[in-house]
User: What shape does this take?
Amino acid sequence: MINQFKVKGKELLAKIEELIKEGNVRRIIIKDEKGNTYIEIPVTVAVLGALFAPVLAAVGALAGMAANFTLEVIRRQEKDINP
Assistant: This one.
């Protein structure tokens, strides 16, 4: 399942952290207003804690670069969660 969220630059980092805490997200793709992809985050890596710190730093830098972003969120399917 794929969801899209429109967020302002200052809301970007908080929304990504919120999505990761939900636990059913596989990948987050950050795009600009024109649909260009800035970064793709495989959330399985994100859960590993310290390895995710540089990714959050990059997301924070992106938030200052543009005013509006689209987050494309790819979620785990029910069958992926409970085999």
The two ends are 17 Å apart (CA to CA).
